[in-house]
């Protein structure tokens, strides 16, 4: 039986953060190199790892995240291996080498606590949304794990002159230096019960990437706050 299960054993540690399969991330924990992760995302760990839900530093930065009820994050610290997942969603691991990423808060699974981060209004959408859309911006040197409802596609907006348009319900993340604007259109799918008739898209232009998931689940929508 052990030989039959050997193929599911974790590979030797090769990086701070790496995938174990498509639906789980393995994090090599070290003292002094803390991690911020979504509350409830821990599925297993080896060694000595401690958890502090909604620590004061996180609460201070993210008091306006999504609903104003507090950031759903926990601080993870210690030594060992930590395994995280989110209800079987695909996990995408990114090493930010001095770069920045604007992430839909519902798709942010974990990131190094050493990264700079905060809640920011998405520029260019105030008139389009009526109130405004908010996102989580992370930047610096460190690792980030995102979730996707299915295998995502990464669109390079700098490859052509045409703008890239994305349904907000399918949007995971994008490069913050991209120009963003909103667009209204009639979605034919609404005729068979998938909408109210008028749909919104987010348009991107410039040098950078957009990460899109194959899902239009409205629970993943960018949260709107007044």
TrEMBL record:
SUPFAM superfamilies: TRAP-like. This is AIM24 family protein. Pfam families: AIM24.
